[in-house]
Description:
Elements: E1 11-14, E2 20-25, H1 31-39, H2 43-50, H3 57-66, E3 73-80, E4 83-91, E5 98-105, H4 114-128, E6 133-139, H5 143-150, E7 155-161, E8 164-170, H6 175-197, E9 201-205, H7 214-224, E10 230-234, E11 240-241, E12 244-247, E13 259-262, H8 269-279, E14 283-286, H9 293-306, E15 309-311, E16 317-320, E17 327-330, E18 338-345, H10 348-361, E19 365-370, H11 379-388, E20 394-398, H12 405-415, E21 421-424, H13 439-443, H14 446-457, E22 460-462, H15 465-477, E23 486-490, H16 493-505, H17 515-522, E24 530-531, E25 535-536, H18 543-555, E26 561-566, H19 570-575, H20 579-583, E27 594-598, E28 605-610, E29 613-618, H21 621-639, H22 653-666, E30 671-672, H23 675-684, E31 693-695, H24 698-708, E32 714-720, E33 733-738, H25 739-753, E34 760-765, E35 771-780, E36 784-791, H26 796-799, E37 802-806, H27 811-819, H28 824-827, H29 838-854, E38 858-869, E39 872-875, E40 878-882
Parallel strand pairs: 5-6, 9-10, 9-13, 10-12, 13-14, 14-15, 18-19, 18-20, 20-21, 21-22, 23-25, 23-26, 26-27, 27-29
Antiparallel strand pairs: 1-2, 2-3, 3-4, 4-5, 6-8, 7-8, 11-12, 16-17, 16-19, 24-25, 28-29, 30-40, 31-34, 32-33, 32-34, 35-36, 35-38, 36-37, 38-39, 38-40
Helix pairs in contact: 1-3, 6-11, 8-9, 11-12, 12-14, 15-21, 16-21, 22-23, 24-25, 27-29
Amino acid sequence: xxxxxxxxxxxxxxxxxxxxxxxxxxxxxxxxxxxxxxxxxxxxxxxxxxxxxxxxxxxxxxxxxxxxxxxxxxxxxxxxxxxxxxxxxxxxxxxxxxxxxxxxxxxxxxxxxxxxxxxxxxxxxxxxxxxxxxxxxxxxxxxxxxxxxxxxxxxxxxxxxxxxxxxxxxxxxxxxxxxxxxxxxxxxxxxxxxxxxxxxxxxxxxxxxxxxxxxxxxxxxxxxxxxxxxxxxxxxxxxxxxxxxxxxxxxxxxxxxxxxxxxxxxxxxxxxxxxxxxxxxxxxxxxxxxxxxxxxxxxxxxxxxxxxxxxxxxxxxxxxxxxxxxxxxxxxxxxxxxxxxxxxxxxxxxxxxxxxxxxxxxxxxxxxxxxxxxxxxxxxxxxxxxxxxxxxxxxxxxxxxxxxxxxxxxxxxxxxxxxxxxxxxxxxxxxxxxxxxxxxxxxxxxxxxxxxxxxxxxxxxxxxxxxxxxxxxxxxxxxxxxxxxxxxxxxxxxxxxxxxxxxxxxxxxxxxxxxxxxxxxxxxxxxxxxxxxxxxxxxxxxxxxxxxxxxxxxxxxxxxxxxxxxxxxxxxxxxxxxxxxxxxxxxxxxxxxxxxxxxxxxxxxxxxxxxxxxxxxxxxxxxxxxxxxxxxxxxxxxxxxxxxxxxxxxxxxxxxxxxxxxxxxxxxxxxxxxxxxxxxxxxxxxxxxxxxxxxxxxxxxxxxxxxxxxxxxxxxxxxxxxxxxxxxxxxxxxxxxxxxxxxxxxxxxxxxxxxxxxxxxxxxxxxxxxxxxxxxxxxxxxxxxxxxxxxxxxxxxxxxxxxxxxxxxxxxxxxxxxxxxxxxxxxxxxxxxxxxxxxxxxxxxxxxxxxxxxxxxxxxxxxxxxxxxxxxxxxxxxxxxxxxxxxxxxxxxxxx
Length: 896
């Protein structure tokens, strides 16, 4: 829209009933529609909006919204299929940080969330422009608008003045507000997915008459799977296919389907989608592959215009095994077994493997979605569906990309508190690793970024489909262990040793049994048994003896899980004992997990039927240990309270924005800050820096050195010119300078060797001894700011001893960052040394996180080295790169 007067592209978002609207700034050509919005209101609604009814009210309101722009004013409208249905405005009147707000919603569309959605978008825009509060005057009888303000999740106060009430809404973005936005978004999202995942009628467009077509295969699956509601085929050359009524077009159907499955050639997908939209179809499943960019843009635009949710293109299909529906719109070979696992994948092949594996295990599937190219419906959508469907108790994801990782993370943190969320960490290798200039960028691999997302969100990340199924089997069937203490029982010593090695490699602990436990176990085991860890029950152990042994281990307070490694023996066969049966007795009474290892087992993992449940059985000790380790990690994540982002003193955000804007005004393409601007930016966030001085001449360098010299009189000189990053690699550093003569000599050396480049030098006192660390941040365009921390110095990239978390950092995230690297013992006082200033280190990381969160223009920051001593923490060398990026609210409700 070329006459958009407020800037910013239109976005699409969901109303409370799941319908799609476009939220965009008002443009000049909207005047007639805006006037009509008011003219079509009832006299009562006009009175509530304008405190009185006037024939001029509509004209004046449209004039104001479409007038020439002025500072402090913003107007957003909601549009559905080209029709304006709502307007929200704020105006600061050119002064202060408080803005007057007004809202109007078309008659007949109240209680559908139009006004709330518009206000959310206004809140985001206002915050970006420095507005801190909205104020609004309303008639005290206008309950709808008063309820809207009260339910936003923001701090709102009221002051009654006769028949009017003055409302003040403080625009703090705290967790209460984000949670309220999330809840509204979840409800709208789930409502929008109803036509897709619980359709009352389905049409397969492109179902062929001959075997072999994808459309015919999907029609067969739907028909043979017993879809309980109306099913149609669309093919102009047939009247029935597979016994399903066939019609020449979507518009010729006897009723409008909720869901249309498109299995037509790529070139006709946009046209067919347009036909579906005009007919009133509410969801599309596009299995067709090979759409070019123009066809994709047209498809998505059509879906947004007509409010259709889209799965695909290039996908396997969707399934909902609810017995009341039996929807199987896939072209997989068989029907998924009904069950309780929700599955969302981008790869159809992975989808088939998971459907087969879950069906074989007996876990089954509640809802399945093959997302394909994922232009609309995403993993985030599916998580919210499973959170609400009352059928799903396990979520499995295979996602190759993330549309909005920060929104996904918040959703996953909430969902995984209720059900386990597992994923295959696809795309771990970083073939696209940046040829980056800074240590931070070099360290920030995609593996590290995804790992931070999964860890912070509580997602169980596995490395393969097989490992995913192994972990799912245990999490589905067993209680979570309190800690990582595992007891191993075996009837063959060698199997026990293999299991012990696997547990140790997986990070599990094998505590030695207490004397009391030894006596208890020897009392129930056969003669010759060895009670250690592993417990060697010998080949002579009977079914009853093994059951008693496991029960005693389960009751012991020092054991959190039991792993039983069994091999078939002639002894058990001769006595008729079934050792596996000993482990499947009344598992419902158990409050600790038990798993079996059977080396002769043909399948990697099975779920053995048991009294009141199932027990997982693995063919490899490593698989069982990995699954237990995942359960331990989930238990620890659930036991830890949700972290909070600590408040920081001495942060000057407005000044920091001024530093950034001043630099980008001079450097339109961005770049690395010069030392003085870099130091000023760090100072805005209270990040401690070693004393320093800037000098451009030899005499200035001498004077600066005199001011900076410490007790030992030594200084360091670092050359600088625009574009210089690795000073040591360029030999642009002089250390241990004593006296004026050495300072002069060092300056002349740099001036000679870098003639035409050198613009000045930085002088610092020689730092004390301490631990050299590294801290930095990279602003990932998809994931947001990633904070990295680890061992610093010149070998930081070689040693690669780093940990990472996504900003904003909570108190828990900072603790994890400090304790995760291998160098952590050095910080806590290894070998009797005093610990470094841990509180100062935490503050540095929190302030770095805040800086990255405040400044979307901050592309990367690199602090190396950071010197940590018992007396304090300071940055010895810092580099910051800025890019001209616009801020974007990651939590604003919008469709991609």
